């Protein structure tokens, strides 16, 4: 991409964003990135190189940096490939009344059916994303939705753009909407949704150098980082705990005398007992003793300003801050957040010849088959598990 092309096309991008009703802050972010890209000292001939330089030199950190990189990629794709940005959020007042009404209906019916809060949230997120897509295609009524539009939402040629879980959620939502949109429309929309195969995404693991750098950051007391970051990062990196379980840890879950953690997994409601490494227990004690704000909240980890329970977004930012301190690039990394650390913990167990059933127990999986997904990050180990052809 060259500056001349950018100067010619960027007003069309900004006009598109305004027509889609994006917020002022979102529009400002695009304008800011375009202004930086048009500056005399900017080399925008190669996107990867441009983003790498930004990551190394800019003062922004964590989630702010990630948002900037994502914004740059969307600008680049529009200018070079004329691919319009997929907007995750559109103000409700801009969306058609039928869509906003159905979002409210989905929330009410899901709660009436006794679904968990997480399940209700998943339904609403899937439905809202679908409505945003339809709105971007100028489709304002569900009766006008064609099979082609639905197919393009889920697949790109022969490649699935969205997962099996998304297709299943939308099918179930359309069943709930039979009274609101009519049974014929509900059946027709459900029939348009393609069958997405149940696949497992295999993401590249941390390299040995990256893992070593993260371990150094978490264990070296001379490296300055918040006590809460070190404690949470240690639980994810050295024990493979999920974000939801770390958020809900209570004092009674930790037995310092016997060096164990006992908890009920938030994802599966299955009890889990694990040995706690010394590095983790020391980090927790230091945080509680020196840094934890006074709060009536029973969770071990709380927000510094409010004293309330942490959110997953807080843990996501903490994980990215640790990666930044360790010098691990976030650019083009498909897996982020603490699940990257859990993924590394699992693949490390397998690479060190840990029995799959033992690894499954340490990860809290309800069945050993769930652990097989992590074999994909270790090609050597995967080859040893392959069946010989007759």
Descriptive notes:
The protein has 390 residues and is mainly α. 56% of the residues lie in helices and 4% in strands. It has helices spanning 3-19, 24-37, 47-57, 62-81, 97-112, 117-136, 147-154, 164-176, 178-181, 183-192, 208-219, 227-239, 243-247, 278-291, 312-325, 338-351, 356-363, 379-385; strands at residues 155-156, 159-160, 254-255, 260-264, 271-275. The strands form 2 sheets. The chain has a 3-stranded antiparallel beta sheet, with no helix packed on it. Strands 1-2 form a two-stranded antiparallel ribbon. α1 packs antiparallel against α2 and α3 runs antiparallel to α4.
Main attributes of the structure:
globular; three-stranded antiparallel β-sheet; mainly alpha; 390 residues
Element layout with pairings:
Layout: H1 3-19, H2 24-37, H3 47-57, H4 62-81, H5 97-112, H6 117-136, H7 147-154, E1 155-156, E2 159-160, H8 164-176, H9 178-181, H10 183-192, H11 208-219, H12 227-239, H13 243-247, E3 254-255, E4 260-264, E5 271-275, H14 278-291, H15 312-325, H16 338-351, H17 356-363, H18 379-385
Antiparallel strand pairs: 1-2, 3-4, 4-5
Which series of helices and strands comes N to C? HHHHHHHEEHHHHHHEEEHHHHH
Portion of residues in helices? 55-70%
Oligomer: single chain
Number of helices: 18
Let me know the number of strands. Answer: 5
Which sheet architecture does the biggest sheet show?
A: 3 strands, antiparallel
Unreliable spans are: 378-390
- Spatial arrangement of strands, main beta sheet: 3-4-5
Q: Determine the structural class based on helices, strands and strand pairing.
A: mainly alpha
Cα separation of the termini = 53 Å
Estimate the mean pLDDT confidence: 82
Question: What general form does the structure show?
Answer: globular
Rg (CA only):
24 Å
């Amino acid at each position: 991409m060259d500056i001349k092309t950018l100067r010619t096309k960027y007003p069309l991008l900004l006009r598109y964003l305004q027509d889609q009703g994006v917020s002022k802050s979102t529009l400002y972010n695009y304008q800011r990135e375009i202004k930086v890209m048009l500056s005399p000292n900017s080399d925008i001939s190669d996107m990867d190189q441009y983003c790498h330089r930004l990551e190394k030199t800019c003062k922004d950190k964590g989630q702010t940096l990630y948002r900037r990189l994502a914004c740059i990629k969307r600008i680049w794709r529009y200018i070079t490939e004329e691919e319009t940005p997929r907007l995750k959020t559109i103000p409700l007042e801009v969306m058609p009344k039928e869509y906003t009404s159905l979002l409210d209906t989905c929330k009410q019916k899901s709660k009436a059916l006794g679904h968990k809060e997480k399940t209700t949230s998943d339904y609403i997120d899937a439905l809202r994303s679908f409505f945003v897509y339809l709105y971007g295609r100028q489709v304002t009524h569900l009766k006008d939705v064609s099979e082609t539009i639905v197919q393009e939402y889920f697949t790109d040629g022969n490649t699935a753009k969205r997962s099996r879980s998304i297709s299943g959620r939308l099918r179930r939502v359309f069943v709930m909407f039979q009274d609101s949109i009519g049974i014929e429309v509900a059946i027709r929309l459900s029939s348009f949704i393609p069958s997405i195969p149940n696949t497992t995404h295999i993401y590249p693991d941390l390299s040995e150098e990256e893992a070593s750098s993260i371990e150094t950051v978490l264990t070296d007391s001379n490296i300055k980082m918040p006590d809460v970051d070190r404690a949470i990062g240690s639980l994810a990196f050295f024990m493979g705990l999920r974000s939801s379980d770390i958020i809900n840890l209570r004092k009674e879950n930790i037995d310092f005398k016997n060096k164990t953690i006992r908890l009920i997994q938030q994802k599966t409601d299955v009890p889990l007992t694990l040995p706690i490494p010394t590095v983790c227990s020391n980090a927790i004690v230091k945080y509680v003793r020196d840094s934890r704000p006074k709060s009536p909240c029973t969770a071990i980890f709380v927000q510094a300003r409010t004293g309330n329970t942490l959110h997953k977004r807080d843990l996501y930012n903490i994980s990215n801050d640790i990666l930044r301190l360790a010098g691990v690039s976030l650019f083009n990394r498909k897996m982020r957040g603490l699940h990257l650390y859990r993924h590394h913990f699992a693949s490390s167990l397998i690479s060190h010849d840990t029995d799959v059933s033992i690894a499954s127990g340490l990860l809290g999986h309800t069945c050993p088959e769930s652990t097989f997904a992590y074999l994909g990050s270790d090609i050597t180990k995967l080859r040893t598990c392959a069946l010989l052809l007759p």
